[in-house]
Amino acid sequence: MKVLIVGSGGREHAIAWSAARSPLVEKIYCAPGNAGIREYAECVGIGAMEFDALADFAASHEIDLTIVGMDDPLVGGIVDVFESRGLAAFGPRKNAAILEGSKAFSKDLMKKYGIPTAAYEVFRDPEEALGYLRTTAKYPAVLKADGLALGKGVLICQNLDEAEEGVRQIMLDRKFGEAGKTLVIEEFLTGREVSVLSFTDGKTIRTMTSAQDHKRALDGDKGPNTGGMGTFSPSPFYTPQIDAFCQEKIYQPTVDAMAAEGRPFTGIIFFGLMLTDQGPKVLEYNARFGDPEAQVVLPRMKNDLIEVIKACLNQRLEEVKLEFEDDAAVCVVLASDGYPLSYEKGIPITGFENFEGKDGYYCFHAGTRMQGSQIVTNGGRVLGITAKGPSLAKARENAYQATQWIQFSNKYMRHDIGKAIDEA
Ligand code: AMP
Ligand code: GLY
């Protein structure tokens, strides 16, 4: 098969690495890709939002399967464009990707179908939102821009002053653009966060192993929200009892609800869960692999990724049993100092050769590009250093050791990725 991967981050590097291991795959392209993805794929200079150009490329290069890694093109309807041209693309259509694309939609869906989630109200008028915050809301209150905002459209407001400022930023100043036209105000939940990724063919759902992300920029979960500073898998807090509850009350009901709404979902559903005292609740849905969740989940998956994707597209997922290795994995993101606010790019990176021949160690590229024959930084999140180990503690030790193999002058990382596992 010829495979095209759409995206350019660490997640797409992990997908390319996984696809390259499949005996079914003869050639991989990635649009637009990055300096690391080149190891497995021919990178093509087409942007992820250029749907017609991507479909032209897929048609002219006889691509058998396109895998869409990123949220924006999915929410924008890339799969519909491919399907209308008879091209196979893995991911939800536009009418199903709304599960991630609109928080108001996903909250209303959960309410309608009794899927556990935080209590909420939806506002389209800033004055009404302010009125609610002044009279009815409890604090802390959670403010969410309805649409996509690079994982940064969620504000946790401790008091009315902060909430008023939040409404101003999201709805009036439109800090997240159109995403802030509608606002969701949600009850604040406490507990452990867990990410569970799944494959679905619209009818059957098969969950992958659990993971946990660290979204805040600084050690101790302080500082601004980022796309994710590191992950570990599995989560020791995600017990078989919790899994059984979620399978029955959250995972299958979500797939069934989408089908019942006339929006059958084929692709990856990422469940962002909070394990509260009253049981697991959904914080959010994503319509694609997590980044950097993919960088710890895919290295532990025993199945052939391409076979599983084919089963989803042929509605045969029921026949598939997903299997994961018994080990653990930790991914530490090497970022540019200053991320997510402001940071320098174009800085030379050295040390990649240290990963050669080292089993169980992975250097997934996120924001990198070639400058002549030199690899340089090209984003806030630069690399995801993943290592496996027989236990989470050992995997963490290995990952942090490997972070020392790479050098660039503004290298920044958190030092407590996976530290919570000591409490498990
Ligand atoms: P989301 O993009 O919805 O996952 O939100 C980003 C982050 O905000 C989550 O990973 C949580 O840490 C936090 N968050 C979102 N919703 C809530 C909530 N209802 N209560 C507490 N924290 C939340
Ligand atoms: N790591 C969180 C996300 O991919 O949305």
Detailed description of the structure:
The protein is an alpha+beta fold. It has four domains: 92 residues, Rossmann fold, CATH 3.40.50.20; 57 residues, Dna Ligase, domain 1; 128 residues, D-amino Acid Aminotransferase, Chain A, domain 1 (2-Layer Sandwich), CATH 3.30.470; 96 residues, Phosphoribosylglycinamide synthetase, C-terminal domain (Glycinamide Ribonucleotide Synthetase, Chain A, domain 4). Helix content is 29%, strand content 28%. It has twelve helices and 22 strands. Strands 10, 11, 14, 15, 16, 17, 18, 21 and 22 form a nine-stranded antiparallel beta sheet that branches. Strands 3-2-1-4-5 form a five-stranded parallel beta sheet. A four-stranded antiparallel beta sheet has the order 6-9-7-8, with helices on both faces. β19 and β20 form a beta hairpin. α7 runs antiparallel to α8. It is globular. Bound molecules: adenosine monophosphate and glycine (GLY). The site of adenosine monophosphate has 14 residues, from β8, β9 and β16.
